[in-house]
């Protein structure tokens, strides 16, 4: 028995969410007194692969090839499932990212495994029961789910498990797996990456704004603050509905759920649907001119004031802090 | 073009979530159940794609009789007909397996689900259906155009977006952007009463997971207010006290 972690790369590099998932998978392997194998698919250089050892992977399986340069759901699932079988992995860990959430259910079927996506804590293995705490009701609650199958697939929410380093280097070996032509029916025509923007689902800091900004032309200061903090930008539903910002930035119950270390909400009143998507943020800052805005009830820090007055001052304060740091 | 839209019956988005029986049961008392908002987007796009006699839209739900109000809402929005698989939806595997068995006997060109349901946020049924039917699945799509034999979709990826062409049949999990949710009009509501709703008994299927209990997030402390003209103090608190910058 072993634990297998799928390490997804973005343009040949691993992101922090992968190191979190490897650390998490290492802890599960320790719980079960077993080994941890990582698998990477696509073009990632050897040093980057070996560095997964720092977080506890003993071995890294490297799968590459022209057809596998970009994420192809079916083919990647076939390869990961085969690796799990060859390495007798009964637990497969992924990051709960867009790709991870596409892969986990296909792996669940291939491995006849229960799937716990949205995992936010280490599994508990008491009295023969294997339980995982996961997000439910769009962040309004957590569910403790028992996986009753022999094989298990767990997708870990970014920013929910602390990265620790063991300082080791992993052994990297090439791995080949059978893929069928039918695995490649979905043909990628074009990929557009916003290289200058921080990805919202795994951002450590999110700067979000709502209708209080009055119009899309006023988003410059939100973007400036986000850029200074290395943060992703986000918005409330009315803002994306109005077309001021793209739907991909909508955070909330019917948008993206985020769990950053810091969530800064500007001019957002805090409707229950918005709070659902951000409630697992570690620290919440609210800037709103209405002292009765419901968002203040869940905030850690707040400023009662007009966004057009406060945000430029906050930008200046962050610049000053950065200059003195 | 024959389109199947998988719909689920979920608590209204304004619901305050509470639990009973020592936090082992979701408290449905006073909760209004609705058509899952993401499924509504999928359904709206399916109706647009088949508008003008270009095909049909069937909605399918795995649920007990209490979900029929939600199914009728889908019919009122414009679905052609509906299927209810008469079973409690135990877990995603169970739901996907039931739908897959139905689809094997009644093939569709395109199967749509919402990107996730807003209760358990699993986003699993689309991928599981794809695997059970051995067809492509693509999740979190923001755009969907189709002709007679294939579709072009745009999906969200980390730090960007990706455009794909996929031949029928395939499964897609839709998100905002694919379509504006349609509001049923009076004609739709009236005709929904007479549209066919077939009830199918479930097949035997495994379940691989079970919710044992629930927790609510720990309450946060009192907000610490900082004067609007002292943003430097906020930055200092975020650095020294909260340690997040």
UniProtKB/TrEMBL annotation, chain A:
Residues 3-188 form the Electron transfer flavoprotein alpha/beta-subunit N-terminal domain. It comes from the Bacteria. The keyword Transport applies. InterPro entries: DHS-like_NAD/FAD-binding_dom, ETF_a/b_N, ETF_a/FixB, ETF_asu_C, Rossmann-like_a/b/a_fold. Keywords: Electron transport, Transport. Gene3D superfamilies: HUPs, TPP-binding domain. It holds the Pfam family ETF_alpha. Belongs to the ETF alpha-subunit/FixB family. This is Electron transfer flavoprotein subunit alpha/FixB family protein. It comes from Mucilaginibacter sabulilitoris.
TrEMBL record, chain B:
Belongs to the ETF beta-subunit/FixA family. SUPFAM superfamilies: Adenine nucleotide alpha hydrolases-like. This is Electron transfer flavoprotein subunit beta. PANTHER family: ELECTRON TRANSFER FLAVOPROTEIN BETA-SUBUNIT (PTHR21294), ELECTRON TRANSFER FLAVOPROTEIN SUBUNIT BETA (PTHR21294:SF8). The keyword Electron transport applies. SMART domains: ETF (SM00893). It comes from Mucilaginibacter sabulilitoris. It holds the Pfam family ETF. InterPro entries: ETF_a/b_N, ETF_b, ETF_beta_N, Rossmann-like_a/b/a_fold. Residues 23-209 form the Electron transfer flavoprotein alpha/beta-subunit N-terminal domain. It comes from the Bacteria. The lineage of its organism: Bacteria, Pseudomonadati, Bacteroidota, Sphingobacteriia, Sphingobacteriales. Keywords: Electron transport, Transport.
